[in-house]
Amino acid sequence: MKAILLVLFMATVWIAGCASTVVEDTRTPVIEMNRFGDLLFHGEKLEPGRICTTLRRAGVRKGQEINIRIPPKADRRMMGHIAGELNRGGFTRVVFTTNRAANSTVQTYTGKLPIQETPPPPPPQVLRRPR
């Protein structure tokens, strides 16, 4: 009897442990680079060599993704310097993005399927008996 209770208790603990979820902080810091090569973070200009210090003071963790919004035809050498500085500072999740944006919407199911055009039925086939 004790063994059964122990097994049930362990199964309950295991199931409860599997059902728990971890909520990740989804706040993503954005650094903007203008067409002149200046870096802006929260509207303030960042000095080269002080990017990591500014991010740490703002509360950005090292494992957090950092988006760097760049203009079209950005200077690749400057992008390499920025990525190198962030990498040396421990920020390894750097994403360079442009002004293109993607929007997403969530649609709820209303019980009706969207209207789809169905192809016309194939012509009827006449089956003949072999002679």
Commentary on this structure:
By secondary structure, this protein is of the alpha/beta class. The protein has a domain at 24-97: Nucleotidyltransferase, domain 5 (2-Layer Sandwich). 29% of the residues lie in helices and 14% in strands. The chain has helices at 2-19, 51-57, 76-88; strands at residues 30-33, 39-41, 44-46, 66-69, 94-97. The chain has a five-stranded mixed sheet, covered by helices on one side. The chain is flat.
Task: Looking at this protein, list some descriptive labels.
about 130 residues; alpha/beta; Nucleotidyltransferase, domain 5; 5 strands
The biggest sheet, with number of strands, parallel, antiparallel or mixed sense and barrel status, is:
5 strands, mixed
Following the backbone from N to C, one meets helices and strands in this order, namely: HEEEHEHE
Distance, first to last CA: 77 Å
Mean pLDDT: 76
Helix fraction, binned, reads 25-40%
The secondary-structure class comes to: alpha/beta
Q: Number of helical runs?
A: 3
Q: Which CATH C-level class of the domain at 24-97 is it?
A: Alpha Beta
Oligomer: single chain
Query: Order of strands across the widest beta sheet?
Result: 3-2-1-4-5
Which residues sit in consecutive blocks of at least 5 with pLDDT less than 50?
17-25
Approximate strand percentage: 5-15%
General form: flat
The radius of gyration over CA amounts to 29 Å
Count of extended strands: 5
